[in-house]
Amino acid sequence: MKLKAKLRLALGFLFAVILLLGGLGAWYLQKLSQEAQGILKDNYISLEYTRVMRNIIDEANWKPEDFQLFDQILIQQERNITELGERESTRQVRSHFNIFRVTKDSSHIGLINKQLNTIVKLNMQSIFRKNEQVKKNADEIYSYLVFIATFCALIAFSFIINFPRYISEPIQQLTEGLREIARKNYESRLGVERKDEFGEMAKAFNQMAEKLDEYEHSNLARMIFEKRRTETIINQMNDAIVGLDENNNLLFINSMASEILGLDIRLIVGRYAPDVALKNDLLRTLLNSETSTKPLKIFANERESYFTKETFEVKNEEQRIGRVVILKNITPFHDLDQAKTNFIATVSHELKTPISSIKMSLKLLQDQRVGTLNEEQKNLLAHIRDDSQRLLTITGELLEMSQVETGNIQLNFKAVQPQEVVEAATEALRFAAEQKQIDFHIYLPSGLSPILADLDKTAWVLMNFLSNAIRHSPEKSVIEISAKEDKSRKLIEFSVKDEGKGIESRYQQRIFDRYFQVPTNGQTKTGTGLGLAISKEFIDAQNGHIGIESELGSGSRFWFQLPVI
Fold this sequence. Notes:
By secondary structure, the chain is an alpha+beta fold. Helix content is about 60%, strand content about 15%. The protein has helices at about 5-60, 65-80, 85-105, 105-180, 195-235, 255-260, 265-270, 275, 280-285, 330-365, 375-405, 420-435, 455-470, 505-510, 530-540; strands at about 240-245, 250-255, 295-300, 305-315, 320-330, 415, 440-445, 450-455, 480-485, 490-495, 545-550, 555-565.
């Protein structure tokens, strides 16, 4: 029998029990009601008739209307004779009443009362008898109902106890079987032997488990082969690779990683990685989730080598199942970059001396004692002076960048007053500003706290801001230089605000990148694209922050922040 049919049968049975109890109760109540109505009809009405006839005898003056009323009541009593002997007594009442109506003999009144008493007595005896019978029937009905209700309750209780178990046990078995399948125990089977939907479900589950078991065993050899092939490919890669599961257990490391880390693959695979890292500083560095742009310097292959760390999270349907750490050997690229940096430093240093000599010669040529120059010669000397100054600036920036790239930034930290930084920058560029009739508006509140910084490097950054502002500001404009203190954050903010055309928002995020230059219309001379990048390196090296606020058509504000002492 199907489960649907069993449910229908069970619910139908409960419904039938309810109908049976309700029907029996209604039938027995109807029976008791009929018996009570019979007592009322048969006896209480006769008693009421005798009461009315007695009242007429007691109160009447026996006028014609009294005789008429008595006769009507007597007729009704004659129609309601229900008890044995009641008919004879009623007939006697009729006989004596007829004689009394004619003769007016009062002796017949006593006979009438005697017969009425007999009728009352007969009906009262019947009432008592019928009442006892009704009580007896009611007790029997109560016993029957109690028995039937108890029987139905026992059946219903048994159904309530057993039927849910009948449903839940196969479901529990199926749930446990699914858990075993989830644990990849494909040999699990359900022992449900039934011919309903649960039996079909168990059969389907067993077929599924059998197919999964077959699939697992049929693909096991192939999976092992693929695993070994993958391991071979990983081991032959020149990059060091370390694989971890979601619990930070070491899944695999290739031979390059084993050589660099100095660990035996056979001894560490499967172990908890942080435990292994307790005795291996390099592995501890690799497990660190923090990202760093600086390459790692590791002694490998009997020389200092440089590596970059890359970490990849491995996910399966948005669930993290592990991660892979790769160390890429960038030693050849590092050597090339180092050679480039050394070349730039050497060339810049060698160019700086002759450029300075050229500037000295220009000053001598402009001296009136050497001779008078015509207007064309003066223009040529001005162009030579500007180009040589530009070359000197470029070589200076290249030298600074070579220090940055080599990590050899030499900082001389000391207590510096913010006024010193502003004065050093403005005095160095005041002449250049006057040539374009640009005014400096300096805002320096009194009582500024000193900063712990390198005066030369910090002034260089502010001069770079000012130089850019002068270059991109129109003539007869104003450049605002300010320094203000944020006491809550314990820092001093320096800023330079110009009235230039501003910088588009799409370029602002790249403004501090090396060699990046904001596109111009070709009228403004641009630099190397290194000044702001060097400025950022100088400020970062002093634990500060640097940034820009600009809006196209409203000028730009460059700022940097340094901590106070």
